[in-house]
Amino acid sequence: MNVATGRRPDESMTLLVEVMESPLDAGYAQAARRRAAGERRHRSTLALLGLLAVLLGLMTVAAAQQLRAPVEGVSAREVLQEEILARQATAEDLRERSAALSAEITALNEETLAAQDAELVDRLRLDGVTTGSVAVSGPGLVVTLSDGAVGTAQDGSATSAPVQAIDLQRVVNALWASGAEAISVGGERLTSVSAIRHAGQAIMVDLVPLPGPSYAVEAIGDPEEMQTAYARTDAPAYTQLLSSQYGIGSSLETADSLELAGVGSQLLRYAEPVEADVSPDEDQEGNP
C-alpha cells in the first residue's frame, strides 16, 4: 500500500532536474550579468563624451566670433599713430629750442668779435647763410611737386605715382645751379651735408619725414635771374616728363618774400692722415 509523503516524484533525479532547468553554469550567468551592466555604463559614457564635445565646439565657435568681431574703443593702430604724432611734436620742439640756442650763441659770438674783427663777422654771417645755420629771408622761387592721382589697374588693384626722392633731388640741384642762396624742402632747410632720400614710402630730409602729397621747394635768390637760369636746366623737361607719364603735378612760382629757418650750429667733420708706425726704409728692409 502506497502512502503519500509530499515528496516530489523526481526528487531522486536532482542532478537531471538542475541540468534541465539551469543549463548554464552559475559563473557564466554572473559574467553575462556583469557584461550587460558594463554595456549600459559604456553607452552612458559615450553619450556623456558626445555631449561634452558638442559643448566644447559651441564654446570654440563663440570665442572665434568674439575675436573676429570689431573691438569698440581705441585700436592699436590709433595708439601707435598718437604716439608717433607725440614724438614728432617733441622732436619739433627740440629742434626749435636748438635753433634758438644756436641763434643766441651766434649773437654772442658776433658781439664779441665785432670789436676785434668786423670783416670776420661778415664772413661768418655769409658762411652761416651758405651752411644753413642761420635763418634767411628774401624773394625767390617756389617749385612744387605733387603725387600723381590714384588709379585702378587692370586687375582691380589701386595704383599711384608718388613723388620720389630723386625727383626732388633733380629740382634742388637745378635751383642750386640757377644761383639759389638758400633752399628748403618741405620746410626743412638744406645744409652742406643734407640728404634727400627714401625710407620706405616716406621722403626724408636729414632724417625728418616730409608730409605729402605735395612737396614745396623754396629757394631764395633773385627771382628773374633764377627763373631764366632754371629754364636752361634739364629740370623743366624732367618735370614735364613726370607729368605726362605719371601724372605728377609740378608748378613754378615767384615769391616776393620767403623765410627759411636756420638749423643751428653744426659740427665740423674732417679727416686726418694716418701716420704709419713703420717708416718706408724700415718696411723695405723687413720685406726684401
UniProtKB/TrEMBL annotation:
Belongs to the UPF0749 family. Pfam families: DUF881. One of its GO terms (cellular component) is plasma membrane. This is DUF881 domain-containing protein. Residues 77-111 form a coiled coil. Keywords: Coiled coil, Membrane, Transmembrane, Transmembrane helix. The chain crosses the membrane at residues 44-64. InterPro entries: DUF881 (IPR010273).
